[in-house]
Design a protein that fits this description.
The chain is of the alpha/beta class. It contains 4 helices and 6 strands. Helix 1 links the parallel strand 1 and strand 2.
């Protein structure tokens, strides 16, 4: 997993690690990303891990970092998805990559609608409105950056 510090990063990391655990997979490594994108050393770390076979796929949070990482990996001779599969999180610009990136797309419009609906009900009902928990699940948009591995 490749992440930078952001408000959503802890939840993305938690969900990813929960899925890994539920599937009985090995706990994956994690590569942090600098605020200005992946540094040369971070890219070199990822390239080494791909080269020695310890990394076959990456979940990159966020799209912009994924696009930058793809550029760096291509310059290093890494083939996507032949050498490594990449999944981005956000799906704001993932489809613009070469190859287009598979992405986890949070339901941003639904989040906005739910927030407005809650605000209107809170204004109308005040403190009488019971607390609620709303689960809005993301969508996986499969594109050309992922391959099945044995």
């Amino acid at each position: 997993m490749v992440t930078r510090k952001s408000p959503t990063a802890p939840r993305v990391r938690h969900g990813f690690l929960s899925a890994v655990r539920d599937l009985g997979l090995e706990t994956p490594g994690e590569f942090g990303v600098e605020q200005d994108g992946p540094s040369d050393e971070q890219v070199a770390q990822v390239v080494r891990a791909i080269g020695d076979g310890s990394v076959t796929g990456l979940l990159v949070h966020n799209d912009e970092d994924a696009l930058l990482l793809v550029q760096h990996l291509r310059l290093a001779g890494v083939r996507i998805p032949a050498d490594v599969s990449i999944v981005a999180y956000d799906d704001e610009v993932a489809a613009l990559s070469d190859p287009p990136l598979t992405a986890v797309a949070p339901p941003k419009a639904a989040v906005g609608r739910s927030a407005v609906d809650l605000l209107v009900r809170r204004i109308e009902q005040g403190s009488a409105l019971a607390a609620q928990h709303v689960a809005l699940l993301p969508e996986l948009r499969v594109r050309e950056s992922t391959a099945v591995r044995g």
